[in-house]
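Bug #77: duplicate submission created two jobs. Keeping one. Sequence:
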Amino acid sequence: MCLVVSRHFHLHLFTIDSKLNLRPETMDLQNYSFVSEFVLHGLCTSRQLQFFFFIFFSGLYVAIVLGNLFIVATVISNPHLHSSPMYFLLGNLSFLDMWLASFATPKMIRDFLSHRKLISFGGCMAQIFFLHFIGGAEMVLLVSMAYDRYVAICKPLHYMTLMSRQTCIGLVLVSWAVGFVHSISQVAFTVNLPYCGPNVVDSFFCDLPLVIKLACMDSYVLGVLMISDSGLLSMSCFLLLMISYTIILITVRQRAAGGVSKALSTCSAHIMVVTLFFGPCIFIYLWPFSSFSVDKLLSVFYTIFTPLLNPLIYTLRNEEMKTAMKKLRNRHVTFH
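Kept job's structure:
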């Protein structure tokens, strides 16, 4: 009797290897099914540009970490800011921004000096996990910040009741929980896909649409379902934010009080952050299986430039924050 075994049954041969002693098939399965590392294409192939990018992005990354760390330290050290719902949420946003810029940027900077940009399978899955964990948490946190501004402007008499300390902590915990559930649901499916053959990721970090395309199976439907999760989260949060700020701006326009200009300034800064952060995410995940060279630029924008612009937008347009930062800096200089 002739036994014909296809590649789809190699896994079954592997499980009964001890009984049938099918060594050749087992070895073929190992060669076929497992990719131990991925090759990152990077931002460019020009050696001159890579050296320039090394200097440029190294400076940006240092500025991101120091800027957001300074905001977190200012909020923690100042009792007034620490007890304010708005600044409490801002401190958490800066904390997330530091991690959003750190999950892939240090490796990207190091890879500018490397001939082969390699990342292990585990490292690739870790990048996907932290990107969606931190990104999902930041999206929900931005919605919480919009809710804070809505209550402050539209229901000022009930502000301290609706935005109590417990409420603020609950909003932060919910943002982290949503980010974690969203991320683990993505990685749980991605890590179990069979990767056997091309292993080149056309970016400077591992992202879901790019890695799914490398699986050795027809993963289109699964990919659409997984990536639509990210698209649904991005779009729903974006719509909630736009609705919130529309209500705020309508309310502000109907009032002729002295604080209108300040409210408009605050809301415009928030809307700018929302547009810069959600725009690239929605674009990337609405067309996940299309090849756009602009995707790399958008990835750089929301993983590096947005965490840099957040502290600039929130601090340079906020006199109270700038005053608190000056006090912290002067106190530190005096101490030394």
